[in-house]
Amino acid sequence: MDDTDTELLQALVQGFDRAMLVSRCGDGLRSRPTTVANTVDGRRLWLLSGIVGDRLEELSQDPNVNVVMQDGVRFCSVTGTARVARPTGDEAIWNDRQR
What's residue 92's pLDDT? Predict the structure, then answer.
């Protein structure tokens, strides 16, 4: 990802609070609601999701995902690869409201 791609990603997702993460699950697809994290990492899109059981296990088998955001007449669809990250207390990727 070069600087132009980074700037485009940040411009596209700016202002969205919620997103749907769509991933492959066996022969089908799975969508889950997420919160767009507040982060200074301009090269990645961080999404917050509650983890219950093996809900995110399919990402280790097939990391190809689509993220869809919509707010009124604005929408954005981003395709990429995902991985599960569990931030430590030192990584502030969410704000007080998201906590």
Answer: 56
